[in-house]
Amino acid sequence: MTVTPLRTRSLTAVEDSVTVAAELGRVFAKTAGDHDEKAAFPHENIRLLHEAGLTALTAPVEFGGGGAGLHETAEVIREIARGEPSTALILIMQYINLATLPKGRWPDHLVRRVIGDAVSKGALINAFRVEPELGTPIRGGLPATTAKRTAEGWSISGHKIYSTGAVGLTWAIIWARTDELEPRVGAFLVPANAPGLRIEKTWNPLGMRATASDDAILENVQVPLDHAVDIRSPSEWDSRGEGQAAWFGVLPGALYTGVAEAARDWLVGFLKARVPTNLGQPLATVPRIQQAVGEIEELIAVNRRLIASATRDIDEGRPFTQTEAGLIKVVTTENAIAAVEKALKLTGNHGISRSNPLERHHRDVLCGRIHSPQEDTVRIGAGKAALGI
């Protein structure tokens, strides 16, 4: 399929990007089952996204990007996720980094290089943070991955797991500690093809299988001194870094809302086509079924309104706390899970058949609970904030 690039369309910018994303989502849906079965990185999807002008959507205009805000970005992610959610998750990581790096502490020339690669080549970037012993850094602790000073710069060694999109990246942001007497911790920019960095294929999960979130092994990977792009004492870091909490809170909800919508769409088609002999008419005509579908619509509608309201507030600079971002992530992902589970209840054996996409949507949507911030940390944080503790 050929998709007209964003820059040549006559619609407004937001309508333009969302329309293109919806087109691509429909294309991606045709091969989503194959990507799921093979747990294969969606190279072709990423190529089409670049050709359509979407890989650098959130990069600032002055850097050559699309300059999209969070509201537009969430709509694009939702539409892509309706077709193939693993592609949408890879895109979330890309969008967050391209939007927030220019506002951070990175050297300007490296920000321009990374974003320039995304604009011109569709190059992807993501952070490798999680480790076998540490787990997710959002829960605290220093990484075992270590950066040692050398005469030329840094030598980095360590083991990262759950490295989303690893095989398809051009750049990796490695979360590591220094070997100094008082260690600093933070981000080191590493080319994905750097000698000593290898990807081990370990990703074999229940859902979101095409994210290719494999292990990354670093053995004395050499980078220049300035590639320690943001290292600080541990006490200087918040849980996500400046500017990222709202994006990490809202965009997963948009993704899994897209999955719930895909499940709803399949369900509606099934209910209209299914005519049991004892009923003599489509299941869609049964009031009890109509009510159950209405409950699914309720959950999806709440998600879309909540995400739309939150993203507009963020884009317009209204106060928005990290606690709110976390709560929105929890509520929207749980609503999406509930919507897909209701669809399963209505379809019986048909819904869990591997020949239908609903069981895949169910496996994918359950992964919403895994992403940080997770339910317990969000609700404990919200409780402490309310109690003034």
TrEMBL record:
Coiled coil region boundaries: none
Domain Acyl-CoA dehydrogenase C-terminal residue range list: 253-372
Oxidoreductase in keyword set: yes
Name of the featured protein: Acyl-CoA/acyl-ACP dehydrogenase
Acyl-CoA oxidase/dehydrogenase middle domain sequence ranges: 132-221
Superkingdom as given in the UniProt entry: Bacteria
Ranges where the Acyl-CoA dehydrogenase/oxidase N-terminal domain occurs: 26-93
Keyword flag RNA-binding: no
Record-linked PANTHER family: ISOBUTYRYL-COA DEHYDROGENASE, ISOBUTYRYL-COA DEHYDROGENASE, MITOCHONDRIAL
Assigned keywords, A-Z: Flavoprotein, Oxidoreductase
Molecular function terms, GO-annotated: flavin adenine dinucleotide binding; oxidoreductase activity, acting on the CH-CH group of donors
Pfam family name, one: Acyl-CoA_dh_2
